[in-house]
Design a protein that fits this description.
257 residues, mainly alpha, receptor, NHR-like_dom_sf
């Protein structure tokens, strides 16, 4: 073993996670298991996942299934269950598209991106970034560019780390929103959002030691871009999907006409 390798091992070991942090990571893993549930024969719109060339309708139906799993995931979190029903609803409604953006897209490799340019998520949930080219012509180019900037803001190793991306989704979920008006709910959202932000950093520290700062450096930019992506995404599917072919939950977030 080279001297530099020994030094790195010592440095990383100095950032070992505490018992409470390990338990918190286990809780995150447990909550997110449902997002990787297999698609059995009874799964509605299962065929949309299986297609290699997905239509805008397929993409909306995939989003509908993923949204429902994100709701299920949230309900498994003790932190989420501390909120009032109104607070829970507001967080999910305001943060859903941002979480979908982190979760749903892959195959973003392009000369305009640094590194591999790929979000590493299970294959059954991947949708090529080229899907933007099939959507509303009035906003697809801007939306695609904004998404690519979001991916580029994340360190390559973070993009490949599913647990890191899952914690990032919880940072997104527990972002203070104007729609969360109850003071107790707002205090809890701020508290837990900060907690997940620190947990992400500590998790990266346990992997990379002092270098964790550079791995998390792009997160504020990425989070800001996520908010922008969500704000501008409403009309992405307008005119590209027939209303009767889209599932109700997806239609709550994306206009079709």
């Amino acid at each position: 073993v080279e001297r530099d390798e020994i030094s790195l091992q010592i440095d990383v070991q100095g950032y070992a996670l505490q018992t409470t942090e390990l338990r918190a990571l286990d809780n995150v893993r447990e909550a997110f298991l449902c997002l990787n549930d297999p698609l059995d024969a009874s799964t509605k719109h299962r065929e949309s996942f299986m297609k290699s060339d997905k239509t805008p309708t397929d993409i909306m139906n995939i989003m509908d299934i993923t949204m429902r799993r994100l709701v299920k995931m949230s309900k498994k979190l003790s932190t989420f269950n501390e909120l009032s029903n109104e607070g829970k609803f507001s967080l999910l409604k305001e943060g859903m598209v941002e979480m979908l953006t982190v979760r749903s897209y892959d195959s973003c490799s392009t000369n305009e991106l640094q590194g591999t340019g790929q979000l590493q998520v299970p294959a059954q949930y991947t949708v090529s970034v080229d899907m933007f080219d099939k959507l509303n012509a009035y906003c697809r180019t801007e939306s695609k560019t904004r998404f690519m900037k979001f991916v580029d803001a994340l360190h390559e190793d973070v993009r490949k780390n599913e647990l890191a991306l899952n914690i990032m989704m919880l940072v997104v979920l527990f972002t203070p929103r104007l729609a969360v008006s109850d003071e107790r709910d707002r205090a809890l959202v701020i508290q837990h959002g900060a907690g997940y932000y620190v947990l992400l950093y500590r998790y990266l520290e346990s992997l990379y030691g002092a270098d964790a700062k550079q791995y998390q450096a792009g997160l504020p930019t990425a989070l800001s871009l996520l908010r922008s992506i969500s704000d501008k995404s409403t009309t992405l599917f307008k005119g590209a999907v027939k209303p009767e072919e889209a599932e109700p939950l997806a239609r709550e977030f994306f206009k079709t006409e």
